[in-house]
Amino acid sequence: MTEAPAFRPMAERFRGYLPVVVDVETGGFDWNRHALLELAAIPIELDEAGRFVPGEVACAHFEPAPGTEIDPKSLEVTGIVLDHPFRMAKPEKEALDHVFAPVRQAVRRHGCQRAILVGHNAHFDLNFLNAAVARVQHKRNPFHPFSVFDTVTLGGVAYGQTVLARALQAAGLEWNQNEAHSAVYDAERTAELFCKIANQWRPGDVTTPA
Hints:
Blueprint: E1 17-26, E2 36-46, E3 52-54, E4 58-61, H1 72-78, H2 92-109, E5 114-119, H3 122-136, E6 143-150, H4 151-159, H5 164-170, H6 183-200
Parallel strand pairs: 1-5, 5-6
Antiparallel strand pairs: 1-2, 2-3, 2-4
Helix pairs in contact: 4-5, 4-6
């Protein structure tokens, strides 16, 4: 009987960090001033063959934090209706807890030291996340405070495309413009793109010039 080939565990893949794809929807572009309205996070997992696959999504809708602002134009883009009865928004601390708990579980399950945010224009998402963490003085943020993996860079290197929709199309993956600007949908598509590019990489592919 042939044994299944061994593969490196996640804790050895990214220097002890667990990639977690994050997307936010917000009340504007200024993380110091505008509200965080949606947050979705998808830990990257390993399948039986050791290939990267998107894990289970954790998401929350946020009540605008006291003192934050909302640009009406941003709501036109996202389609968010703040007082929609099915939105079931949570206060900022509770919403962060709801998303952070499964991320911490994934970090522990893989034996990693902490999560590292993966995003499309990742520092935009990280800045809004860090601003919310600071507002509520959250003590159990699983994410690295400043390092990220950005699929803008990865898409540009792999496919010559930096716009998410175009990078996905170049990769042969689905993109539905009608579902865009939902934190869950955008995070799911970003996770697929990250996994496809990362699975094409093999350690040692890059050689040092003589």
